[in-house]
Design goal:
With 117 residues, the protein is mainly alpha-helical. It has a domain of 66 residues. It contains 5 helices and no strands. The longest helix has 35 residues. The radius of gyration is 17 Å and the shape is globular. 21% of the residues are buried.
Amino acid sequence: MFVAVKEEYVSLVKVLQSALDQAQDGKGNIRHSFGEPFDQQEICDGARKCGIGAMVYQARKKSLEALRLYETQGKEAALEDIYGAIIYLAASAIVLDEQDDHVLDEQDDQGGQNGDK
């Protein structure tokens, strides 16, 4: 897979790559994967079953833990939780993208989000 990156976004790609590395080669893979594609792993299944809010909560929790870890264990420990938060939000985006068309179709059938036509 090739990803085109403008020079001014290289720093962002480095962070996203670190989060991906954690998910596919590090803690995420060791604890949560049984070899299935990411969008079929529990992190995405949990978002489907419990809602996007559950993943946003997990990302918030990881972010707050990163602040505490920075003070108690240093930068590397904090970064690990920040990368984890990014992965939770990525799972949210994957599941939201899957559901977007379906939710919009249901809203159209009901006359909009509030039932108005």
